[in-house]
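Quick one before lunch.
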Amino acid sequence: MTASLSSSVYPFDGARETLLARPIPRVLSIAGSDPSGGAGIQADLKSIAALGGYGMAAITALTAQNTVGVSAVHVPPAPFLRQQLDAISADITLDAVKIGMLGDAAVIDQVRSWLQEVRPAVVVLDPVMVATSGDRLLRESAEQALRSLLPLAHLITPNLPELAMLLGEPEAEDWAAALDQGKRLAAEYGNTVLVKGGHLPGPECPDALVNTTGLLSRDVIEVSGPRIVTPNSHGTGCSLSSALATVQARTGDWEASLREVKPWLLGALTASEYLRVGQGNGPVHHFHHLRQAASPGAFAAKLWNAAAPELESIYGLEFIQQLQSGELPERDFNYYLAQDAIYLNGYSRVLARAGALAPTEEEQLFWARASQQCLEVESELHRNWLSTRPVPTGTGPVTKSYVDHLLATSASGSYAVVLAAILPCYWLYAEVGQQLHGAYVEAGAPADHSYAEWLKTYADPDFAAATRKAINLTDAAAIAASDAEKVAMMEAFTQSCRYETAFFDAPRLFV
Ligand SMILES: Nc1ncnc2c1ncn2[C@@H]1O[C@H](COP(=O)(O)OP(=O)(O)O)[C@@H](O)[C@H]1O
Ligand SMILES: Cc1ncc(COP(=O)(O)OP(=O)(O)O)c(N)n1
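Model of the LCLJCK34 complex:
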């Protein structure tokens, strides 16, 4: 009893797998290749992956095309396509199949006989005939053969010229006429038709699922959407049909699938401007929803925005202005140095903790070295700066709070959160140091400046390089972090930024 239970609860277990929803549907695209990557199998594979599926591709035809047009089409021998299809279906259970460009009647015949044998659970047919550029992707002589494929599809996704051609009628000129044609095509072949509004003018761009056999909750399910003003719509039909096949394999519900896919496609059209691919009708951005998370530097930029007001406050502090002009009372400077030495000791422990949590040996080494260098700077402070000055002993309240915050974060936070807490000490210090050193050099590096020796320490290129590395490591950790972790990172970072300001202001308050 125990043994059979434990084997049957595993979701991908043998015979039970067809009864359970597929979390990662296995989706085959039978389509032509677009080497520019915006349409055809390239768009299909991206769309399938973007919607969470595992994509496969059997290539029907090779096109030479870009965003401007199609310059050549090569259709390999149709029996070889059959070999591709047989190789896949002999080994892999297909949760959905999407069919796109077929090229000619011989290819269509092979696909039809394979479909009749394999009977995939979900078949979406995009009856590709002519590209938006006006170039033919299906021989005119193959149009009748294409009609013979329609009864084998569960969903047909023609654009308006294709819908008209399949019915042998003129193209619909408005949405009502398009829906009417969709109903007649669905009734003729007993399946569901997706009527698409892409080829009509106006501010709205609706799509509608049409089925007159009672398969849907209503004969026509319209999903509205705005028309995105963009020159980039290359491959929208391919992307939509393969995305629908993928989501349908997961949900088993056409309406739910269209409601999930339509906003994704709108996002892909909207974000297409970031791609800058080609000079004509460019591709859509299939992975727009991953853009923020995966884009290197994006989280660091957010952190920087959060730090900006704090940096402003630091530059406004009397301590910083007097340090820059050389008018800072010596007792304030001494207090600052003494607190810095205490702080560095605590900070070194937190850096060591980052090393302990680091996911790679390289990062471990970076933080371990940083921890050691921190102790070296601390002893340098004692040896060269503090030994000859009357300095107050004891930990000041700001130093105590800042170190407590860092230690608490390092005790309970993840690697990413610890890095976010550590970063302001690098980043703000490096920025302030650069500003102070720059102003000192601009003033002609006066040798009689009371803090000339100290200001020169700010020009250390190794510290600047270490700061850049710390920023990059924090940014990379954010890319891998969960949403909750990112929130915790931002909190830890902004808290440390506040302490950086308070640290520079502490001599004014506590001396
Ligand atoms: N400018 C646009 N704004 C919003 N959606 C669009 C736009 N152009 C096309 N679509 C959508 O892209 C999909 C493909 O539509 P369509 O252009 O009609 O087909 P095809 O790409 O096969 O010619 C549909 O979901 C349609 O609503
Ligand atoms: C190889 C290949 N297949 C299909 C198309 C047509 O793409 P589609 O998404 O229908 O629309 P447009 O890109 O023509 O707007 C293609 N161009 N190439």
